[in-house]
Amino acid sequence: MSSKILVIGAVNIDFNIHSDQPYVLHDSNIVHHQKQVGGVGANIAQNLANFGMDVSFLTMFSIDALGIFAKQTLTHKGILIDHCDTMSLPSNMYMAIFDQQRDLYLGLNDMPLVDEMTPRWIKTKYQYITSFDAIVLDNNLPQKTIEYLVKTYSSKRIYIDAVSGVKAPKLVNIINQVYVIKMNHAEFEILFPKETVPPKTMLLVSNGSQKITLYQGDNIVHQTPETIEHPISTSGAGDALFSGFIYGLESQYSLPTSLSIGAYAAYKTIHVKSSINHEVNINEFLHRIK
């Protein structure tokens, strides 16, 4: 029987922007853009749904047109959002500006709805959250909300995405109390400047095109990503890595196999413009590595 997974986090309207020419600061630049439903939490929920998992998403939507668009998009993908709430604030927005190598050059976010996902609001969802086997948290949530969730649902497998170097320090108080934390190398150096890792919590650490490292106490597993000759966009690659790893663990695969699934999902995502590659076929990949 597959796990029931609840993702709690942000849903944004993402605008991915890139230019074919170097940017000229303090001037107008000709660019191409793509609009999509995103946010770390929403991306992970979409990936897990694409992988065939039973996934629900708990977030706060806006009542505006973009909020309606986000609801319709997620529902169409089979993600259960029936316990989400709506507010009259504007939809969360994230603008990702990519350089000519399709790496993130500048990220801008305006996320008023996330601040409304307070411990008081989360407490009204107690019975609902209790029904799940595993919980995935997006570190865009307020720090007090994350700490409340980790303390209240300590008996469950809790996965957290650190999100960014600015937000990673919010996790300092609960590092030893969760199942897995996903971060990039810069976030790892912020949280563990002396490289003294927690004894039980697994740390999934990405480093761009370099090797992916999984720490579990004294046990360290490495995964070297496939070489990417012509990347389309790195947007969503980290979310895909984490989603694939979650899929592997919740499907009872070994740590090395789960890491390989995550690396495969990230590799496939880098080959599309969107933050989600809807053509990722986990079963095909697993058959290939048997």
Description:
The chain has 9 helices and 14 strands. The model has no long low-confidence stretch (mean pLDDT 93). An 8-stranded mixed β-sheet has the order 4-1-9-10-11-12-13-14. It has a single domain (4-21, 34-278), classed as 3-Layer(aba) Sandwich (UDP-N-acetylmuramoyl-L-alanine:D-glutamate ligase). The chain has helices at residues 40-50, 65-76, 119-123, 126-130, 143-152, 185-191, 237-250, 255-269, 282-289, and strands at 4-8, 12-18, 32-38, 54-58, 60-62, 85-87, 92-98, 104-110, 134-138, 157-161, 180-184, 202-206, 212-216, 219-223. The chain has 290 residues and is of the alpha/beta class. α1 (40-50) crosses α7 (237-250) and α7 (237-250) runs antiparallel to α8 (255-269). 43% of the residues are buried. This is Carbohydrate kinase PfkB domain-containing protein. InterPro entries: Carboh/pur_kinase_PfkB_CS, PfkB_dom, Ribokinase-like. GO terms for molecular function: hydrolase activity, acting on glycosyl bonds; kinase activity; metal ion binding; pseudouridylate synthase activity.
